[in-house]
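Weekly puzzle thread! Below is a chain. First person to post its structure in C-alpha cell form gets bragging rights.
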Amino acid sequence: MDDPNQAEGPGYAYKPSLMGAPWFLRLTPEHLAWAIGRRSGQLAYRDIASIRMSFRPVTMQARRFLTEIRGPGAPKVVIASASWKSLMEQGPQSNAYSDFVGELHTRVAAAGGRPRCESGLHPLLYWPGVVVFVGVLLALAGLIVRALQDASYSGLFFVAGFMALFAWQLGRFFKLNKPTRYEPGAPPQALLPRE
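Winning reply:
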C-alpha cells in the first residue's frame, strides 16, 4: 500500500517521528489497512480488540491527539493528529485525523465489532497524576498565602502566575484524559479536534 488516498476508501498519512518511516492508513470495505515502510497489513473491523483515544501534547505540538488500535496478529496501530514536517516543525492534521478516526469508528460499529473502547489515560496512570496535580496546586496556594502574610507582592504575583499557567495546562490535560468507556459508534467528540 503506497498511498492511502488511492482506490478503496478514505486514507490518512502521518510521520510519527523525524527519522522514522511515515504511516499510511486506509479504510477498505472490510479492513483497516496499514503500511509502515516495508511492513504492511490489515485488520478486520470486527476483529479489532481495543481502541483507546487520548490527548497527548508534545513540546512542538500542544494539540496532539492519539488513537491506539490493537487486534490479533497486528502491531499496535497508532494514529496521531500531528505529523513531523521538518527538523523544527510538527504540523497539525486535526480535520483529516478527526474525519478518519470518526469513519473508523463508524465502520467498526457497522461491522458488528465489539472492541473495548476507552478514552483518556489508563486509570493506574491517571488517578496518581491527579493526586500529584492537586497536591502541587495546594502547595502553590500555600505559597500564595505565605506571600500575602509577608506582604511579598512580587513573589505573590510570580507564584500566582505560575499556578495559573500550571492549572491551565495540566487541568486541560487531565480533563481530556479522564478514563472513560464509550461505544464504537459514539467516539468522544472532545478527542476529535477541529482546526
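Puzzle host: Confirmed. Bonus trivia for everyone else. The longest helix spans residues 123-149.
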